[in-house]
């Protein structure tokens, strides 16, 4: 089974991809950036504000698939600047609890819409 996940509580896809894919047992999300889904605009502020919005978007995609942030088993975090790692972690730990998901975090030369952070996840259904 492969079902497209789509919600208006997260930014619409801006290319040939889905917000997420539900396999029946796992949910794979596309990278979520700090765009307010109501306005289509990048949220103002620094890494903290952008991380909150990206994680809220991620949470909403997971919920649209019938999963939740507490079911996440793996995340990948893309940062524009690795010096934002500690500040991003402070926000991240407000969304995830022990046992924390496995995670990769990499610095990317450029992210969509020049945002500071993008986060994707794999979660149990």
Beta strand %: 25-35%
Termini separation comes to 13 Å
For the record, what is the CATH homologous superfamily label? RutC-like
**CATH architecture annotation:** 2-Layer Sandwich
Q: Element order, helices and strands?
A: EEEHEHEE
Give the biggest sheet.
6 strands, mixed
The overall average pLDDT, rounded, is: 97
CATH level 1 name = Alpha Beta
The total strand number stands at 6
Low-confidence stretches: none
Structural class category = alpha+beta
Largest sheet, spatial ordering of strands: 1-2-3-6-4-5
Helix content: 10-25%
CATH topology: 60s Ribosomal Protein L30, Chain: A
Radius of gyration: 13 Å
Quickly count the helices. Answer: 2
Account of the protein in words:
The model has no long low-confidence stretch (mean pLDDT 97). This protein has helices at residues 47-64, 85-95; strands spanning 3-5, 20-22, 26-29, 72-79, 102-107, 117-124. It has a six-stranded mixed sheet with strand order 1-2-3-6-4-5, covered by helices on one side. Helix 1 runs parallel beside helix 2 (85-95). With 125 residues, the protein is an alpha+beta fold. It has two helices and six strands. The protein has a single domain (3-124), classed as RutC-like (60s Ribosomal Protein L30, Chain: A), CATH 3.30.1330.
């Amino acid at each position: 089974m492969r079902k497209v996940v789509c919600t208006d509580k997260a930014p619409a896809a801006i290319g040939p991809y889905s917000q997420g894919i539900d396999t029946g047992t796992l949910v794979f999300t596309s990278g979520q950036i700090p765009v307010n889904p109501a306005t289509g605009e990048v949220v103002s502020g620094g890494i903290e504000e952008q991380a909150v919005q990206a994680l809220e978007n991620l949470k909403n995609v997971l919920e649209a698939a019938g999963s939740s942030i507490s079911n996440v088993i793996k995340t990948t975090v893309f940062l524009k600047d690795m010096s934002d790692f500690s500040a991003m972690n402070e926000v991240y730990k407000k969304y995830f609890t022990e046992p924390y998901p496995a995670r990769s975090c990499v610095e990317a030369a450029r992210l969509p819409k020049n945002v500071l952070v993008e986060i994707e996840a794999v979660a149990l259904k």
